[in-house]
Amino acid sequence: xxxxxxxxxxxxxxxxxxxxxxxxxxxxxxxxxxxxxxxxxxxxxxxxxxxxxxxxxxxxxxxxxxxxxxxxxxxxxxxxxxxxxxxxxxxxxxxxxxxxxxxxxxxxxxxxxxxxxxxxxxxxxxxxxxxxxxxxxxxxxxxxxxxxxxxxxxxxxxxxxxxxxxxxxxxxxxxxxxxxxxxxxxxxxxxxxxxxxxxxxxxxxxxxxxxxxxxxxxxxxxxxxxxxxxxxxxxxxxxxxxxxxxxxxxxxxxxxxxxxxxxxxxxxxxxxxxxxxxxxxxxxxxxxxxxxxxxxxx
Length: 298
What we know:
The chain is α/β, with parallel strands linked by helices. It has helices spanning about 45-50, 80-90, 115-125, 225-240, 255-270, 290-295, and strands at about 5-10, 25-30, 65-70, 95-100, 130-135, 160-165, 200, 205-210, 220. The strands form two sheets. The protein has a seven-stranded parallel β-sheet with strand order 2-3-1-4-5-6-7, with helices on both faces. The chain has a two-stranded antiparallel ribbon with strand order 8-9. The longest helix has 18 residues, at about 225-240. The protein starts with a strand and ends with a helix. The model is unreliable at about 105-115 (pLDDT under 50).
């Protein structure tokens, strides 16, 4: 309660019975400029449900103040300009957390163009002490491009990989590249910014099915780093409820240094995989453990 979360995605279907209770704290549509909330693709509704659903599906942080920015089209693609503008809108709305499940999702291949425009918008948010949580991406198999997706690649973004139901790495979770390279030039990443920072549940998640084109199927299963991202966004919401001073307008918040502090707590509170002694480029520092994170924060 009292924590403002902004989801940038395909929108939200408030006609779903598990979302009927939701009164949005903010809505904007960068695709079709519609004034009323909607979702013509479904992914945004699925992500919002993981966070705030009440009914058959129980959200993990249902009492947050939810802001929704639609920046992804019906086709499942989005421009870097629209996504960057959506991130700026979230920042200007005074939210505490921006959740970006843009690395791919439940059967949907998002087109995210990696440009300075989006990364600059993310950095503007972090400079104000806003926590930005982003998906590592779903190309961890044979087509892995060698690093996590942007904007999860930005140093102070909290980048999230996915684990299976047994706690092992989900087969398609993207790898992080943390060493330096000459071309294209990249400096080595250091703690606590090595990618991904952590992993969270991402396989066979129960999700809401948006009511598109007359469908009456209310629920589905989905796998991906998108869902894992929302788990971490919800965890940070619980942390900020426990420590409201860490929010961007709190007495200890409002700066990039606060974000770095929390990232250090994440590094120290997660559960490494068996035998892991240092950062793993798929598993991050370890698996999300919400109670340990809150305890570490004091």
